[in-house]
Structures are given as C-alpha cells and as structure tokens.
Design a protein that fits this description.
Strand content: under 5%
Structural class: mainly alpha
Strand order of the largest sheet: 1-2
Domain Cytochrome c: 312-404
Transmembrane segments: 12-33, 84-105, 117-137, 149-171, 177-196, 255-274, 286-304
Shape: elongated
Number of domains: 3
Bound molecules: heme C
Helix content: 55-70%
Distance between the termini: 40 Å
Pfam families: Urate_ox_N
GO molecular function, one term: metal ion binding
Protein name: Cytochrome c domain-containing protein
Length: 404
C-alpha cells in the first residue's frame, strides 16, 4: 500500500514540477524573445518614455507590448510579477527529490559499491551539496568576479565540474545527475530570489516615489542582468538533466560525470550562439563546433560490448554454451523480484518500466533494452543488489546475441 500511494504522490509532485518548470522557462523564453524583437517605437510613444514596442497576434487577438526605458510615470494599479513560477519549480523540485530519491527509492541514490550510506546520510550529503554550491555561487557573484562574464563562466563551470565528479564518486549515477540538476536549479532560483527580485523592488519603489532611479538601483539592475544571463545559459543543461533519468546510457557510464559535463558545456555553448545572434552577432561557427563536439561524443560513447559479446559467442566452445535454462535461472535470480507482473520486491507494485520478465519469450521481446541495461551499461539489476557477476552478464549477452 505504501509503495502504491508513493507512486501516486510521485506522479502528482512530478506533474506539478514539470508544469511549474514549463511556466517558468516558458515565461523566461518569452521575455527574451520580447526583448529581442522590440522595434523603435513611434515618436509619441518615445515621449512617454517607451524605448521599444512590438505587435503580436495570438489566440485570436492583437497584443501591443511596450517596454519603458525606466518606468511608467505613475505606478499602474496592477503590475504582474513573474516569480512564483521560479519558486514553485524549486519547491516542487525539492519535494520530488524527497519523494523519489530520499524516501521513495534510495536505490536510485545509494550505490553500495561507491559508498555505503544510509538513506538519511545520503539525503544530508545531497542537501549539503545543494546548499554549499548555492552559498559558493552567491559569494562569487557578489565579489569582483561577478562582473567579469567570461571569467565567472569559467570558474562556475569548474566548480560545477568538481561537484559533478564528487557526487558521482559518492552516489549512484542517476542520483548524482539529479543532484547536479537540483544544484543548478537552486542557483537559478537563488538568482531570482536574491538578485532579480530585489532589483525589481528597488525599481518599483523609485517609480512609486516618482524619482529617477538612482545609482543604487542601477547597480542592482546591472547585477540582476548578469544573474539573468547566467540563468539563460543554464536552461538547456538543466532541462537535459531533468530528462536524463530516462538515459542510463549516460548516467550509469563509468565516466557519467564527464559525459554530463560535456553535454552541459555543449548545450550552454550552443545557447551562446543564440544570445550573440540576439545582439546582432552572427557566429554560426559556434553551432558547428557544438555539432562536431556532439558527433565526437556520440563516437566516444559508442558501445563496444555488443561486438565483444558477438566475438565471445563465435569463440565459445561447447563447454561455454548458454542454455535456455541458464538464462531462466539467471533472470529469476537477478531480475524477477522487480520485473514480474506482481513484483515480490516491496518497492514495486507493477513491473518497473513496464517490463515483466516472467518468460523467456518476454526476455527475447525486450532483448535490445536488456542488452543495453544489463550488459552494456550494467545499470540493471538496480544497484546490483542481487550481485550479478560479469560472467553472468557475458552469458546473458551471448544468449541475447544468439536469439537474433
Ligand atoms: C531492484 C529492482 C530491479 C531489479 C532486480 C532489476 N531491475 Fe530492471 N528496472 C528497475 C527499475 C526501477 C527500472 C526503471 C528505471 C528507470 O526508469 O530508470 C528498471 C528498468 C529496466 C529496463 C528498462 C530500461 C530502460 O531505460 O528502458 C530494463 C531493460 C531492465 N530494467 C532490465 C533488467 C534486467 C535484465 C534485470 C536483471 C538482470 C533487471 N532489470 C533487474 C528495477 C529493477
């Protein structure tokens, strides 16, 4: 019953988190788009202090948007702020971290072959990383480095890389990845809460008093702009991490941390092309380099185990022949506690990933995924709780090859 209810809880929290995240990143993309499409307004608008305007049509109506150089002469009665999208994404994300990783399936987080942690210590370490990285970021951005875009970007990348590597040494790959997502997401929400919001409040206060925004407001606004640029570069990597739990190929790789760093770098770099283009600078070479790096990554990660398994089959003598009974036993020992119509493992009510391996026919049916999960990436059995040996994996690989 507990597992059943936790499944519902996880669905509801995850759903909410995705909706909040879509609203946040969607609004942020929309405002970037607006900024980049403002045109020179007509004279009468300029006199009102409008620096750019645009027209759009959507949902059956015309919209006229105007951006003021400083602010309207008088505070409008209703002013829309965009902050709850960010806050609710963070809150639901943290809830999801607890529901899925800290309470629900510590198996996604704890890998006894890396560190024998209790769920409680694992959660403490995870939260410590998130809080620690936020603190480091805040110290750095408030210092002189904060004003030097390139240098800050490089230092931030190195810091994230170190955290990524360290988390990977302690946690299971999937848990390490999601913690990198939580770190980046928390930094992004911190940027809204600790920098962008205070700057907007100062601007609103100045307009309310009917004053020209002073030097202090200007400084806050400058820093808010830097923070918002950082968030902009982080959107693509964080979305990759949000969906990465579907890709054990990456997170369960021995060098999963380096793969994450490479994908993070490539996506943030590709974002750079769009940011430059918005400023009128066309540098397609950036996209070309990003594409080449992606192709290199695809090449580097290409599995070789499949071929090994093939060669092994060819050279396997009769004494090494794998029988159906061997496979039946192997699957029953290592997979069926979870992958059954009614799993005996209390953490599951239904076969995980919808894959029940009750018969050899079903093993054949899922042969490609099993090859990937149990032979190539070896992320199955989850956390290798059943202690599946390399020889058994080889056997399974050989048998799967023979079925083709
Ligand atoms: C302790 C429980 C457990 C055991 C034991 C286990 N699995 Fe899984 N398996 C899971 C869970 C949970 C998922 C879903 C993982 C996810 O969504 O990332 C899964 C997913 C899979 C998938 C789908 C992967 C994908 O990304 O599409 C395959 C294939 C698979 N398991 C094969 C196996 C095989 C083969 C064995 C035995 C050698 C095995 N599993 C043992 C829990 C288990």
């Amino acid at each position: 019953m507990a597992a059943y209810l936790s499944e519902w809880l996880s669905l509801i929290v995850r759903w909410f988190h995705v909706i909040a995240g879509v609203a946040w990143i969607g609004a942020s993309f929309y405002f970037i788009w607006l900024d980049n499409h403002l045109r020179e307004p007509p004279e009468w608008k300029k006199e009102k202090g409008i620096k750019g305007d645009l027209w759009a049509i959507h949902g059956g109506g015309f919209y006229e948007v105007a951006k003021y150089r400083l602010g309207p002469e008088e505070m409008p009665p209703v002013l829309h702020w965009f902050k709850w999208e960010a806050y609710s994404t963070l809150l639901s994300g943290l809830a999801l971290l607890f529901v899925v990783y800290y309470i629900g399936s510590p198996g996604y987080l704890i890998d006894a072959s890396k560190a024998e942690l209790t769920p409680f210590t694992a959660a403490l370490i995870g939260l410590g990383f998130i809080g620690g990285m936020l603190a480091l970021y805040e110290i750095l951005i408030r210092g002189p480095l904060g004003r030097n875009g390139m240098a800050f970007g490089a230092v931030l990348f190195v810091l994230l890389l170190v955290a990524d590597w360290a988390l990977f040494q302690i946690f299971a790959g999937r848990g390490a990845y999601i913690h990198m997502g939580a770190i980046i997401g928390t930094i992004m929400v911190g940027n809204v809460f600790l920098g962008i919001m205070p700057s907007q409040r100062a601007l609103v206060a100045a307009v309310e008093k009917g004053e020209e925004p002073g030097e202090n407001v200007g400084r806050l606004a400058e820093l808010a702009k830097i923070r918002s640029t950082h968030n902009n570069y982080l959107t693509l990597p964080i979305i990759f991490i949000m969906i990465s739990n579907h890709y054990p190929l990456f997170y369960s790789h021995t060098y999963g941390w380096a793969i994450l760093a490479a994908i993070g770098f490539i996506t943030a770099f590709a974002r750079h092309f769009f940011n430059l283009r918005h400023r009128g600078v066309h540098r397609p070479s950036i996209l070309l380099v990003a594409a080449i790096l992606t192709v290199i990554l695809i090449g580097v990660l290409a599995p070789s185990t499949g071929q090994h398994a093939g060669t092994a089959t060819a050279t396997a003598g009769a004494e090494n022949a794998v029988t159906d009974v061997d496979i039946q036993n192997l699957v029953s020992t290592h997979c069926q506690t979870c992958h059954a119509e009614s799993p005996s493992n209390p953490a599951f009510n239904a076969p995980p990933a919808g894959i029940a391996l009750g018969s050899l026919a079903s093993v054949k049916q899922h042969s490609a995924q099993i090859m990937q999960a149990a032979v190539t990436t070896q992320y199955m059995p989850l956390g290798n709780t059943t202690g599946m040996t390399p020889e058994e994996r080889q056997k399974l690989g050989n048998w799967l090859q023979e079925q083709k």
